[in-house]
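Issue: copy button drops trailing tokens. Both records pasted manually instead:
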Amino acid sequence: MNLKPYPEYKDSGVAWLGDVPRHWAVHPLKRYAKNIINNVISKNSEELYIALEHIEGWTGRFKKNREAKFTGQVKRFSETDVLLGKLRPYLAKVAFPKEKGVCVGEILSIRPNVNYLLGTFLEKSFLSFPFIGIVNGSTYGSKMPRTEWDFIGNLGFPIIPLPEQNQIARFLDYKTAQIARFIKAKKRMIELLKEQKQVIINDAVTGKIDVATGKPYPKYKDSGMEWLGQVPEGWEVLPLRWHILIGSGEFRSGNLIRTEKSSDYQYPVIGGNGVLGYTNSNNSEDNLIIIGRVGALCGNVHYVKESAWITDNALRIDDIRKFQPEFLALQLKAMNLNKLSNANAQPLITGGIIKSQKVVFPPLNEQLEILKYIEHKTAAIGKTISRTEREIALMQEYRTRLISDVVTGKIDVRGIEIPDIADIDDTLDEAMEETEGKDEWETEEAEECIRR
């Protein structure tokens, strides 16, 4: 598919558009679209309910939620309205549901005049990097930055022939569906590689294989633990409580945490789900094991090799005896500690629960050999995962650039023949299910990227 620029251009006079094709008109968006505010307190059973968390950033994909219960006021939208999140606009929460529903107040419901502006073209334009960049620059409020329709409605916007708008939207639907398939396949590949890596680790740290021979040990005994089963005859099985000290981390104020590491803020801040940022002080030394203690991800295990600040959402294990700390961390991961959490609305795991668990103790020299074996056997898998993650990132960058170039007229797609693919929407829906709860851009890194 040979992508070329338009034959002639002119200066649009609009920063986010730059030069546009000569035949394009540019007018304030409010001439051809309205911000709809139709406040209600209920919805019909068949209607959609859309909140910001239901929309995936930068893709236009959203979760179709009809069963949600809510209290308070919402806004009704129609099948022609395009939705744009006004809170933290750098997240690019944009959706075109093409059916009726209600949305939360932090979402703008923008209704185009379909005699001049198609919803599909409006949606794609809202997803473009330069549009999001200029809208993000209009926000007010440092902690909860918002934009408003007054700014967006006054932005210069391309008004072009309807057939050309339709062609642009169809072309981008086709290409983004291809990209979604590619990303889905690559993510599945990463999942399989991680499973393979975990099998290697689990087999080694639980004694299923002798790393010296690559075969099972000559003799086994019953461990007395259902999750572990048989263990090598020479390995000890003892309660953790006699061999570790465990305690909680400490609260760290958000104004003392930075997203980027620097000479002043060099210590990682680690919670139950890993690194949250960096701070200027530490409350722990190196070679710690960190376990998430609260929330859906409680039981997550991290081995920390450097000095860090451990937050109060995590437990920390130190003063580890009879173990190489990294070996114990791998064995705790193999135990799947999350299943030990209580069944309350807010899952919780305590230090007492951890200390009551039994683990297996190979001799220290054997622990070292096991760690060397794991490093050797998983190195190639790790490289493949990193390479695949980079391929996904590059494809996501390509998607963002392609949308921006097409909707601002840098690429002419008028003469391109687009296959009539009936399953485009199905592909996008599948991709949304695949990435649900894993918003690619929902981090402060996105804001930094926009600023640059």
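Record 2 (pasted manually too):
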Amino acid sequence: MTENIELLLLLAERGATGSEVEVRLEDLAKAMGCSRQTAHRRLVRLEKSGLIRRRLKGRRKLIEISERGRASLQALLLMLEKALRSTGSIRLTGTVTSGLGEGSYYMRIPHYMKQFEKVLGFRPYPGTLNVKLDGTSEERAAALREMTGRVVRGFRSGTRTFGDVKIFPARLKGTDAALIFPARSHHRDVVEVISERNLRRSLGLKNGERVELEVIV
């Protein structure tokens, strides 16, 4: 893990976070204090983990940090902020939007509901509040997906397999809540929030209204 972060940081310093850059193994090996072979193995490991993309263009070796790789770096930044500021929370901002239905689907499955209740200490309302994130908050949410959170485990039922759901305790307008990330969700700009109450109704929230979510990490 430490080696992955070290190499990602080196690639980021060379501009690989926003575009492809040409990288020489000799330069990476020298920066990391290792052999060319070791540097190559670490690059292959990053590629297999989905953290970078590599391709050849003639004799040039081009590398770009993937979305997942950028999220890993953002997660590191959030952990550093937490350690330095001792706040233990991350703030996400956005606007209330219509539901995706993914989170509420999980909330209606008894096997999941029992785990939610055990992990959170309350029985969630069987629905979610959806928040469309601002640009910076979208990056922070992507980083949260890479961080360690509480997990509601997936399971198999007959021929169907249900994935994990990652959970972070949160507060919205003074109300206890939780931010959930279904493992199989492909939406990156919208997050789902659950609570013991119907948040939209109890807080009088309407589509387009700006909200700030305090996520406990």
